[in-house]
TrEMBL record:
Region (Disordered): 1-26
Protein name per the record: KAR-UP F-box 1
InterPro entries: Kelch-typ_b-propeller
Protein species of origin: Hibiscus trionum
Signal peptide: none
């Protein structure tokens, strides 16, 4: 079994525990703890590591996966079928663009991949990762996490149109997909991120480049009641330079930080102050060391970046305006996307063939690899509570 990388549970996130008791006697399995009512037994066992509950006995394992038990955290991934990148192309007209995206969750306790429920198909979901006209370049599918939700916010469809007119959202603790409010100007290759439970989308292009869209900034507040959901215009960017790439807008101490070009190329940085609704210049030390994918911890107090050439994981020191090395690993070279959560950094590398997990809370720092399902390559990973199921 691979190391379980998210051992904590989310307290108080499951509702109705008293109305959904664990009844093992009904199935002939036996009580959770002999001599105690199951609701009391659950309180006693909820402080134990999930891996221990999984390994001791079936009643405890059943309790661990019950809807009433606080859910542990899992890894969620967006994946596409692997393709032969070296295959000779003779007739582009005969190549069908691939849009068979899959959504899976990795259970760190059982070390198993599980598919998410099928997303809604009205309207049909068409997300491209590769297109015959752009054989050497992957088309991004932009996703983020906000308030324990997975949000798919931008992608490319056939004929290079924006694929989503509304964000597609998955809530693990109800195992339910739904669409968010309609986007004013559907787009792709935009800057997307979240801060304090609010989704932000800036710049980007639609079916054609438009200057007003490339300079726009909008927010969707998930903290509001659903009937009040909608996109609100915010302070505009000074230019459209952030419409060239799929940009990570990383929430950090009440601000969104982003750069307009990936990798080692010379880049421009921008910082959006959420509270003041104001754009600022990015500190020179921050933009100078932003040489790969970046992510922030759930509390948005620490921001990490991976140098995709050196394989160096670093965290930003705001007081000294510099990046401090955490660890350097060969496996982190060619890192393409990353997520941070529960003290772990999860990075996608090697063209989606690897997921590297780094525990930044341990001394010395520890790392290991999670293998994607056979025949699939990972586009993005996220850290969220496990899916709740009525079946154990």
């Amino acid at each position: 079994m691979q190391p379980a990388f998210f051992m904590e549970t989310t307290r108080g996130s499951s509702k109705g525990a008293k109305n959904d008791p664990i009844d093992d006697n009904e199935n002939g399995i036996g009580p959770v703890l002999p001599g105690l009512p199951d609701d009391i037994a659950q309180r006693c066992l909820s402080s134990l590591p999930p891996s221990l509950l999984f390994s001791v006995c079936h009643p405890w394992r059943r309790l661990l996966y019950s809807p009433s038990f606080p859910p542990f955290f899992s890894l969620y991934a967006l994946l596409f079928p692997q393709q032969n990148r070296n295959a000779a192309v003779t007739n582009l007209a005969e190549i069908v663009p691939q849009n068979s995206i899959e959504f899976l969750s990795f259970d760190p306790i059982s070390s198993s991949w599980k598919p998410l429920p099928t997303p809604p198909q009205n309207p049909p979901l068409h997300l491209l990762h590769r297109h015959p006209s752009f054989l050497s370049r992957n088309l991004p599918v932009q996703s983020l996490t906000v308030s324990n939700h997975l949000v798919i916010i931008a992608a490319t469809a056939h004929k290079l149109f924006p694929a989503l007119s509304s964000p597609l959202v998955f809530h693990p603790e109800s195992s339910r997909w739904f669409y968010g409010p309609q986007i004013t100007s559907p787009r792709r290759w935009c800057a997307a991120g979240s801060a304090q439970g609010v989704v932000y989308m800036a710049s980007g292009v639609g079916s054609h480049y438009k200057g007003d869209v490339a300079r726009s900034m909008e927010q969707w507040d998930l903290n509001k009641k659903r009937e009040n959901w909608g996109w609100e215009n915010k302070a505009r960017l000074k230019d459209g330079r952030f419409s060239r790439e799929a940009v990570e807008a990383v929430g950090y101490r009440g601000k969104l930080c982003m750069v307009n070009v990936k990798g080692k190329a010379v880049k421009e940085g921008a910082v959006y102050d959420v509270g003041l609704d104001k754009w600022e210049e990015m500190p020179q030390g921050m933009v100078g060391g932003w040489n790969g994918p970046a992510a922030a911890a759930v509390d948005e107090d620490v921001i990490y970046v991976i140098d995709e050439v050196k394989g160096r994981l670093s965290k930003y020191d705001g007081e000294r305006d510099c990046w401090v090395k955490v660890i350097e690993l060969e496996q982190l070279k060619r890192a393409e996307q990353m997520a941070a959560g529960r003290g772990k950094i999860c990075a996608v590398s090697a063209n989606g063939e690897r997921i590297i997990v780094v525990d930044v809370r341990e001394e010395p720092v520890r790392s290991w690899e999670v293998a994607p399902p056979r025949g699939l390559e990972v586009v993005a990973v996220h850290v969220l509570p496990r899916m709740i199921s009525r079946q154990c």
